[in-house]
Amino acid sequence: MSMGWALRRTVGIALLFLAFAASAASSLAGRRVADVLDQLRTVGLSFIYNTQILPDALLVTGEPRARGGIALATEILAAHGLTLKQVATRTFVVVTRQSTAAAAPAQTSPSQATSDQVLDQVVVQTSRYAFASAEIDAHTFLDQKQINNLPRLGDEPLRAVQRLPGTAVNGLSSLGPIRGGAPDETAILLDGLRLYEPFHLKNFLNPVSLLDARLVETMDVYSGGFPVNYGDRMSAIVDAHTVHPAAQRYYEVGLSAFHLSALAAGAFAADRGHVLLSARRSNLGELAQLSENDFGRPDYADGFARLDYAFTDTTRGSVSALLSHDSVSAITDGRTQRARDEYENGYVWATVEHDWSTRASTRVIVSHTDVNNDRVGSVDAAGSRTGHISDERAFDVYGLRIDNEIATPAIVHRFGGEVRRLSATYAYSVDRHFLAGFPFPASPAVNESRTIALRPDGYESSGYWDGRVEHNRWTAQVGLRVDTQTYDGSGDSAQWSPRLSLLYDATADTHVRLSWGRFFQSQGINELQVEDGVDRFYQAQHADHTIVSVEHAFDAAFNLRIEAYRKDYRRVNPRFENLLDPLALLPELQFDRVRIAPDSARADGVEALLNWRPESSWSGWLSYTWSRVHDRIAGREIERSWDQRHAVSIGIVWVRGPWAATLADIYHSGWPTTRLELVPSATPGGVPTVITAARNATRYTSYNSLDFRVTRTFDLPRGQLDVFVEASNLSSHANPCCTQYEVVQNAAGNYELQREFSNWLPLVPSFGVLWRY
């Protein structure tokens, strides 16, 4: 069965679901109580609950009189013999009415709650961010409401991550470097499965991910210091979870400037089973045809399907599939450069979860990943250069993962492991010819032809354990992880990763965290740099993270978090960059392609994030980051190309009735760049030479993007209609990205080196509608 056929079938099923849609009640009656509480997080409230006393089957019994805030939560819980106990500012635990008589005082630290009815999770790790949620909220950090209210170019949910401290932003890529790490140092998970290359247009700076914004319910974001159940990446984790609509039947149809989308959900077998289908298709190909300029045609589509079933009250299972297909053609530089790419991604996984008791559980995930990437490109500039690329890659991964949790009276244990069987195929060839005098008068001729054909295969495995201990105001979490690989042939030994996190509750509103850990990253079987002539895998890299943070919740719905970090890279693999033009269509055919091989690297930073989440229509955030990241090469410290010394993110959100509006701004210092210099010829009248100055010794001007999004919801006889308008880089600020150099002779016969800047994206407007019913 071909990937394209499977994708078309998934899209067809989703559309059939929509064709037979039935109306769903828009009231709160009949909705899951847990879903209503989760919605109240959008006004700055946080709820902690145990699924034993608040199961998914617990529904709102009648239409409540209260319409929001604590009053609504209290009313819908009272019908089931439940109530709320405040444990911190704007933070509540769901308990039975019988337990309130023996409950701790309202200002008891959440980490000290020991009632059997309250099995809350305490977040010990630093660097776990949200725009506004209490520090003890272990589940929701960026929920769908927050993501959908934010301006997000291309309907991309990962752009919400870019507004958190520590992220380097260029305005085009959906996910940038985090705390100085390269983009490939961040892992993206969906419902527990690690995704490989989860991007559309992935050879064009990854502007869109496979994560449909309407499909993502929550995202847990770790900027560093993540626990041992995550591994094999050195910088960050984005752990996304798909939606679980509360209604028996639920449907969506959306149309925007970027996508046509559909989503359908339904329940069966007395609500024990649930089906979710989602499909999305790009409109960029049609927009390209309307353009007066011929720059190619980008077409892509993706689909997701999930089947859930509760076999018993303690055993649940699901089968999920995520499929995508890209067909992209691009033309640049006056039609002298052409590229055609075709990608197919397929992820299929089955999950079984079992609760052995109220204090012990197991999750098992069996998965198969299939990724294919075919790329061809050519350059034909008469009189200067020619070139051709053929790049075919494919890889498969079969995986088995087991996670366990056991809570004893003294220690909460988490342990598990994973094994993957991997195989890949590389077939790459390149011909590159630069004529003498290109790109500058004194440049020599270049003639290069190279072919690489490889078929690596083997295994990778991992195991982990951590334990959490609480005593008085202290919580400690210590863990150890081990990873191995056999497919790379590097002879690398097992990588052992110890990690330690401490939490001190100074008061109910003030929390201090300290984290240290070692984080290894092997070179994935899909990450071999054959385009740059690399035909062997490197040994695993590693970095040591040290993080200290202080967080305080103020009475006036303000929450302030200050965090300092240091990331020491003790082993760093070589990478390749284009010094002058990161937007190059065919990077390996450019003259400015260079190899960067650091001996070590270091990232330092201090981040401050202030959230404002009153129980009103207004909310907002303000963050400031001072940071520095540099490589150490031959004894010299050289800033990385995405180093940004100062960064500010600010936003204000207004939600009232059917209206939601957000105005947000991102600013950061200009990124480093490398200048070229003209050296006169030693011979009178001779042709001068162009040399490269110290790498990344100068900087572009600062980056700034002002973005907005306004949504109006209309009640219809059947469902609701959301209409939105948004714009990225509203002021069309010139954010330079690239430099072009040219040697010219002036009227006096003297040579001059001229340079011209080009920019990241200008003002990009968007609009769309979404029908929910």
Q: Into which percentage range does the β-strand content fall? A: over 45%
Strand segment count:
43
- Alpha-beta classification: mainly beta
Q: Can you tell me the CATH class of the largest domain?
A: Mainly Beta
The shape is: globular
What is the total number of structural domains?
Answer: 2
CATH architecture of the largest domain: Beta Barrel
Could you list the spans in which at least 5 consecutive residues all have pLDDT below 50? 1-26, 99-122, 130-140
Please tell me how large the radius of gyration is: 27 Å
State the helix count: 6
At the fourth CATH level, what is the homologous superfamily of the largest domain? Answer: TonB-dependent receptor, beta-barrel domain
**CATH-derived topology of the largest domain:** Maltoporin, Chain A
Largest sheet: 22 strands, antiparallel, barrel
Proportion of residues in helical segments:
under 10%
What does this molecule look like?
This protein has 773 residues and is mainly β. The protein has 2 domains: 108 residues, Phage tail protein beta-alpha-beta fold (3-Layer(bab) Sandwich); 632 residues, Beta Barrel (Maltoporin, Chain A). It has 6 helices and 43 strands. It has a 22-stranded antiparallel barrel. Strands 4, 5, 6, 7, 10 and 11 form a 6-stranded mixed β-sheet that branches. It has a 3-stranded mixed β-sheet with strand order 1-3-2. Strand 30 and strand 31 form a beta hairpin. The longest helix has 17 residues. It is globular and about 95 Å long. The N terminus is likely disordered.
